[in-house]
Amino acid sequence: MKSTIAKKTEGYGYKYTELADINKYCEENEIRYYQEIETSEINQKDYIITYLIKEGKEEKHRGCQIVDAVLQGIKNPVQEYGSSLTYCRRYSLLMALGLATEDDDAQSLSEKKEPTQEEADNYKLTFGKFKGKTLKEVEAEKPDYIDWILGNAKDEYMIKLIQLATGRKILSEAEQREKTEKMIELNRLLNERELEIDRTEFYDNYNVTTSSQMTIEQLTDAIDKLKKEVGE
């Protein structure tokens, strides 16, 4: 399977790969696809989302940001937006397929912005029951909700915003699995001794209000202590 497609059509002062050539590549490799426009909740920008269907499985790939239309010559903004959309669709499809053109890398078309501390501190949620509140405020009021956002976040920018705003260490998948297992074990031990242990006081010893706020090290320490107390 080839990994590049030639650019051969002139337009706007540069050469570009024709969509027909990409479609031919997909047909030859038994790949189907469809595309949608999705607005990011982070920066309110529109992005092309490509869905590839290969061997009966569907994959979702986020592609290019649709650039704002600029009036050029006799073209109106609607025409410019249409041209921009076609351009972004074409290169988002190349990105999803893992194909590069002969003289450039389509991945460079994606916007990869690193959030600043100021942006993280001032960022306010635009959805859910905490809409209008900063990440810091939500972390203080309902840290479990931040856990939920992290568990569902697909946008790297949002994950980094949370990391900066809350000071949390973002866990790898393996670390998250380990933490979840330890949280389950800790809650089991606490439930068994529900009448003996004041949970608020217990969590205060670790400067947290719930087990989800505890680090893996804190969870391990708490589990070890409880097991010793019950002789496990």
What does this structure look like?
The structure is a single chain. The chain has helices at residues 19-28, 77-97, 117-122, 135-141, 143-152, 156-166, 173-192, 199-204, 216-230, and strands spanning 4-5, 9-11, 14-16, 31-39, 46-54, 57-65, 100-101. It has three domains: 4-109, no CATH class; 117-166, no CATH class; 173-230, no CATH class. It has 232 residues and is an alpha+beta fold.
Seen as an oligomer or otherwise, the chain set is single chain
How many H/I helices? 9
- Write down the overall geometry: elongated
Mean pLDDT: 77
Biggest sheet, strands in spatial order? 4-5-6
The figure for the number of domains is 3
Q: Helicity level, as a percent range?
A: 40-55%
Instruction: Provide the low-confidence segments as ranges.
Output: 1-16, 70-75, 102-111
**What is the SS-derived class?**
alpha+beta
Distance between the termini: 57 Å
Total beta strands: 7
Give me the Rg, rounded.
24 Å
Query: Largest sheet, if any?
Result: 3 strands, antiparallel
Quote the beta fraction.
Answer: 15-25%
Give the SSE order as H and E letters.
EEEHEEEHEHHHHHHH
Describe this structure in a few short sentences.
With 232 residues, this protein is an alpha+beta fold. It is built from nine helices and seven strands; from the N terminus they run βββαβββαβααααααα.
Give the arrangement of secondary structure elements.
Blueprint: E1 4-5, E2 9-11, E3 14-16, H1 19-28, E4 31-39, E5 46-54, E6 57-65, H2 77-97, E7 100-101, H3 117-122, H4 135-141, H5 143-152, H6 156-166, H7 173-192, H8 199-204, H9 216-230
Parallel strand pairs: 1-7
Antiparallel strand pairs: 2-3, 4-5, 5-6
Helix pairs in contact: 4-5, 7-9
